[in-house]
Amino acid sequence: MDPAGGCPHADNARLLARGAVASVVLPGGVEGMAVLGHEALKEFLAHPEVAKDAGHFTALREGRIAKGWPLTTFATVRGMTTADGDDHRRLRALVSKAFTARRVEQLRPRIEELTDGLLDDLHRAAEESGGVADLREHFALPLPMGVIGELLGVDAEYRDRLHHLSNQVVATDIRPEKALAANKELVAVLGAVVAVRTERPGDDLTTALITARDEGGDRLTHEELIGTLVLMIIAGHETTLNLITNAVRALCGHREQLERVTRGEAGWADVVEETLRWDAPVSYFPFRYPVRDLTVDGTVIPRGTLVLSGYSAAGRDPAAHGPDADRFDVTRPARPGTTRHLSLGHGTHYCLGAPLARLESTIALERLFARFPGLDVALPEADLARHSSFVGNSVRALPVRVSPRV
User: Fold this and answer.
1) What are the start-end ranges of the E strands in 233-358?
2) From CA 88, how far away is CA 272, in angstroms rounded?
3) DSSP 290
4) Which domain of life is it from (predicted)?
5) Is the distance from CB of 148 to CB of 193 less than 8 angstroms?
6) Which helix (H) or strand (E) holds 33?
7) Distance (Å, rounded) from C-alpha 399 to C-alpha 303?
């Protein structure tokens, strides 16, 4: 795996042509495997003998993972994404009520309000820079960060720093000393957030988690509280940030698809789903571990092997999505018997924030192109710098030309 990241699709196609499961070497020479094919990944994600707890990670348990390994947080953070069975159900239950479809729908007016304010900011930024502004900086980032920040009760003063640190946590080319420093600071900043909410409780998830911790018993430890906040901050904004960015890139690069939406041949929700399939915001997600030798699509994955979930590869798997799987098509019908995509997971660890990510992205795209119908990317796709990560799948900045305000 290239620690510098880059566009994954050419490599994914090459690997898929050889099979649905591939052996990979991660930074630091750590050996693992990746499940790439749609049906193979669907089976693997829901398999009862595949664990998330890093206690099953053989190389880590045997002390063969170097200190400061850039992917350590994905394996060792204490939270629902690294827990199994009763622990997973306990940790997920503490926050799940805030992310039901009904509760998320109640956030619509606030998301619309935030979106409109950010569109004003995007327009001002473009006016100050000759008509071009970075859509990620002024729109795609502050929207999900603002929403998750309000849900968690994270004051605005902490949000920029949390985004910077979460970027370092998901980077796969980061040096060991920087990785250790970023993780240490992330825990410290979230500790400060917890201290503020302990002193000034509010109607937010952090206060609810503090209450669960302070009630004692086995509901939540302090380490699990911080770990849950780490996961929710990162997943709560990085994925939606990439999703909105990738959807704008896709629509601007396929104007005929944008016209289909504006003519009513497809909805903005269809744009979101096709973007999730065609250019998943997370390319390879760490980690799962078979608890015994497991055969997936004819390939044996040995017990205790770390396994990456290849969401971007599965999204363009021709075996699942047809010979035109690499074509962006907002009117693409679901193939009979096939899940439209797996980019938000599958099984018991299906993304808890999926309803929120979908709502934020749908509102953002609809209002963005209604306000600026002539919006276009200001650089060729090949000139857009990519994330330094094979986990997150997007570009670092998205300069756009903003049409006259309407």
Assistant:
1) 284-290, 294-296, 299-301, 307-310
2) 28
3) E
4) Bacteria
5) no
6) strand 30-35
7) 45
Residue 333's pLDDT band, with cuts at 50, 70 and 90, is: confident
Q: What is the pLDDT of residues 30-85, one digit of tens each?
A: 999 999 999 999 999 999 999 999 999 999 999 999 988 999 999 999 999 999 99
CB-CB contact of 114 with 146 (8 Å): yes
What does pTM read for this prediction?
Answer: 0.96
Helix, coil or strand: residue 97: helix
Contacting residues for 309 by C-beta, under 8 A, at least 6 apart: 34, 35, 41, 44, 45, 284, 285, 288, 342, 345
From residue 48, give the alpha-carbon distance in Å to each of 34, 44, 91, 204, 340.
18, 9, 19, 34, 22
Kindly report the backbone phi and psi dihedral angles of residue 366, in degrees, each rounded to the nearest multiple of 5, phi listed first.
-60, -45
- Beta carbons of 276 and 365 less than 8 angstroms apart: no
Domain boundaries, the chain: 9-401
Has domain 9-401 been given CATH number 1.10.10.60?
no
Task: Report the pLDDT averaged over residues 105-121.
Answer: 96
Average pLDDT, the chain: 94
| Closest to 191 in 3D by CA, of 149, 245, 154 | 154
CA distance 39 to 207: 40
Q: Select the more confidently predicted residue: 299 or 340.
A: 299
pLDDT for 216 equals: 67
What is d(CA 366, CA 269) in angstroms, rounded to the nearest whole number? 9
DSSP-derived pairing of the beta strands 399-401 and 376-377: antiparallel
